[in-house]
Amino acid sequence: MGCSQSATIGIQSESEIFPGSTHTSQETIPNRNKRVEKLPALERVSLNNVREHHQRFSLCSPTPGESHQTRIQLQNFDELNHFEYTFINVLLLGESGVGKSTFINAIVNYLKFDTIEQACSGQPIVLMPVSFLLTVGDNFEERIIRFGNEDPNEDHHHPGQSVTQHCRSYVFTIGTRTKIRLIDTPGMGDTRGSDQDNLNMQHILSFINNLSHLNAICILLKPNESRLNVVFRSYFSQLTDFLGENIRNNIIFCFTNTRGTFFTPGNTAPLLKEILGKFPIKNIPFKKSNTFCFDSESFRYLIAIQNGIDFDDYQKEEYKESWINSVNESNRFLGYICGALKTYPSDEWKSINHAQFQINQMIRPILETIRNLFRNLILYEEKSSTQLIKLCPSVVAHSSTICIKCNRVPKDYNEFWIYPDDLHTFSNKCLNCRCSRNRHIDINYKLDYELSNNVNKQFIDEIKLKSDQLNQAIFEFGCFFVDTTRTLKTNDLILSFLNQMIEEENQICQLKTNNNLNLILYKQLNQFKEEYEQRQNVSISNKNSINLNKIYILSQNISRIDLIEKQIDVIKQYHRTYMNEQEKQLL
Description:
The chain is an alpha/beta fold.
């Protein structure tokens, strides 16, 4: 089966990340006019096979006589029939300005067009908008070159800030069963300061935490750097601390703009070797096989041509050779990540930082469940009630928050007053109130409540058992936090959320006169907090060793409790929706 003259860009389904999910294409951008080759038909995923047959990797287009619409319909049909793809997930990491977004644009064109002449006579593929400054003519006139539609995720108007504002993935198909997912990330060394860098890193970790696996971490660098700054070392360290030491063999290095260093890493190589030699994770390979040198300037040349910029014959020859070298490196890069590298599945990401991250995702579900179990035990013991309160979690939009300053009106559930989750939408500012950002709490699901009947003694015994189980889990997690630092954490999220719940109950008691049940709950939550802090203090004095495997087993067991599992499921739906929104595909 051959490939014909066109391809389209659209949004790719996240069914591989979250099995069972479906997503329809929301955006298409035509790419026209050039024929591309395709890997042998009916192959499973065998990219080693491709090298044996000396065929270059290529993007897939509709076969002759096949329309774009037919192509899309066939793909949907394949999905309905469980058509399997192997996804190759590649995380791109680099300092602001190194050219991650340009690299993504460039590499799909290198894979599409063998020569720059083909690229110039065809239509360049632009996955995200391009903007750069170019000096032209004898008087060095400055021209701003732009290509592609505006994208709110790409900020070209604030120099020094990371151009890419949030993680976004770009997917293209090679062969018949393989999709490459390149994950663009906010750059390190943002001029807004270290706080913004830390926020960017947490966003990256949150994004990749939703992947089923990683194939490669691609560190993008410029050749001939005089130094690699502290931010680079910090980012690299945080990422490897999260993924664990076994990620070492999945780290690769890509150098941009290497035409001036004859397609070598230049003076950056000894600096990088020095950093890797001092790194906590030893034996990270840095050699020819996992290092790739490109020249993104040849892609900029292509875009400049599209903008009517003229170049002399010498420049044309330079960029012609540069394009060929970059095409060769692109195919070597693709062969390496698809063939030589072993997949690194998420269930092997074992580290203290990763365990802390997983626990943080569970804090709200666990503590809200504990609070509601307290409510139900109070109802049974104080009123002998056969009507208990049930948690009803539901999915929310990505930008949902709760304002802790705005007045909320509590609702009555069997004489228990409960604050509803009044959702606010927050972008650069709140669209529902005038309160500042630090008065808003981000939430990834909404809680509603309803009354449930037919309660018996056996059911109450089960509630007590689950309450004890969750209480002990929170104490274990709190001790794990202090055991990893040997100090009480100033940003303990468990304690922070506990304080928030206690303050809510205190406000309700101040607001409502018939507050007997809420007052009992308020006292119980305070007692729970005191015991939590006592356990942490004892753990610090005992200097307990860290049993990481025990923590992972505990978190897995807790996540399977039905009351917790329902909340975690809607959190996964929330992340699935966000991942779908942040992904585009070149078909």
